[in-house]
Amino acid sequence: MQTVDAATLREKLTGIFGAFSDPRPSLNIFGDVAGLMRNWTVHATHPRCFGLFNPSVLPVAAAADALAATFNPQLAVWSMAPAANEIERHVLRFLTARLGLDPDTTMANFCTGGAEANLSAVLGALSRAFPRWAEEGLSALPSPVGIYLSAESHDSLTKVARMVGLGRGVLRYVPVDESFRMDPDTLLKRIRRDRARGRHPLMVVGTAGTTGAGAIDPLATLADLAAGAGAWFHVDAAYGGIAALSDRLSPTLAGIEGADSVTWDAHKTLPIPMGAGMFFCRHPEAIHRAFSVRSSYAPGSVRDTVDPYTTTAQWSRRFIGLKVFAVFAELGAAGVADQVDRQAHLADLLRNLLEEHGFRVVNDTPLPVVCFTHPRIAAGEITAHAVAKAVRATGEAWISPVRLGAEPIEALRACITSHRTEERDLRALLDLLGRSLGP
């Protein structure tokens, strides 16, 4: 990506499009927009973009998104888009089973992303713990509540706590161990201490694939602790849900089948365009109580179906799930699993290459995200931020700095999300890191 400032971009847009006073042919519009994006966008789909969770996109997924836009079905009500709703339901049942949940009793839906799914989980937990909450709001809560989560968990829960009116203070952060996983012993102590002080344990959130290190919390242990405390157990697997697609990696999610709800972002784990979040919940009645409304202008419900607007935060909604369906239909379940395993294998190879070149890998995860440091960084001779900036400045690859743990550890982070990444791309990254570290 070329360096640019906001003023320059605004000037170019004004020069090309003005105030939209003159109509332009669509090919010219797309040509100009493509030029702007080509020059001034981080190319997340490039095989050497080892950045955040933005996979390369398969043509079938892009075409599916275009097809959905062309028909433009309204998925709020089942009767207005029966085919689209059932296509989504079909792929969601498959993914529900991969998580170890019962497709016949689990409610699942597509959403905008992990933030919306996590919001749904908190609302479901409130609805189940305090049935009067849906009508009376927070005044129905007899005591303060606590949401217990890892210190490495995603910040979307902070927004959710504010959005639902609970406030950030409801979040009870639990320290992590040396592998950046939530410490269950400390969790239990925090719950007991809070309960003694009159705080109700509303929810325990386990993370399967933290954003920074890809750490997977001890889900089975957390499920037992949550059950013992009478708390809703939610698993934020926005990234780590990818392991469920692989027979080799799925055991690392042991315990997720005991979750009351699960977040999973397909657009973080599959070669599809953003956004395609997914929410899975074992308590449909709680979700219905949280979201259900009935409007006179909406067509009546159809037996043995669910109108999505009664179970989600969204009302009008596009055909999100078609691109997910299309990828599984084209590659097959085994083909998707092969892609997941291949990315995990490349991450293992990168770890080996880094150690051979004098780096130290600092995270421990089966997922394809690698965090590492170097003696020069540890000694303070150069910062991880400076190394990452130097790599990005070449325009040949993209990595990010990351801070992990309470100390914290300053490291570099490389995440493999592209099905186009090959071993040569890893070796090119090693070369760029060597040059960026200097003599």
- CATH-assigned fold name of the largest domain: Aspartate Aminotransferase, domain 2
- Give the overall form: globular
Task: Count structural domains.
Answer: 3
* Main beta sheet strand tally, sense and closure: 7 strands, mixed
Find the count of extended strands (DSSP E, 2+ residues): 11
Q: What is the CATH homology-level superfamily of the largest domain? A: Type I PLP-dependent aspartate aminotransferase-like (Major domain)
Mean pLDDT: 93
Q: Architecture of the largest domain in CATH?
A: 3-Layer(aba) Sandwich
SSE sequence, one letter per element:
HHHHEHHEHEHEHEEHEHHEEHHEEH
The tally of helices reads 15
Distance between the ends? 26 Å
- What proportion strand? 5-15%
Strand order of the largest sheet: 1-7-6-5-4-2-3
CATH class of the largest domain: Alpha Beta
The radius of gyration is 23 Å
Structural category: alpha/beta
Low-confidence stretches: none
Portion of residues within helices: 40-55%
Give an overview of the whole structure.
With 439 residues, this protein is an alpha/beta fold. The protein folds into three domains: 1-41, no CATH class; 65-326, Type I PLP-dependent aspartate aminotransferase-like (Major domain) (Aspartate Aminotransferase, domain 2); 331-437, Aspartate Aminotransferase, domain 1 (Alpha-Beta Complex), CATH 3.90.1150.10. Helix content is 42%, strand content 13%. It has helices spanning 6-17, 26-39, 59-71, 82-98, 114-129, 133-136, 156-163, 184-196, 219-229, 266-269, 284-291, 322-356, 375-378, 384-393, 423-437, and strands spanning 107-111, 145-150, 171-174, 200-207, 232-236, 261-265, 277-281, 360-361, 369-373, 400-404, 409-415. Strands 1-7-6-5-4-2-3 form a seven-stranded mixed beta sheet, sandwiched between helices. Helix 5 packs across helix 7 (156-163) and helix 14 (384-393) crosses helix 15 (423-437). The longest helix has 35 residues, at 322-356. The mean pLDDT is 93.
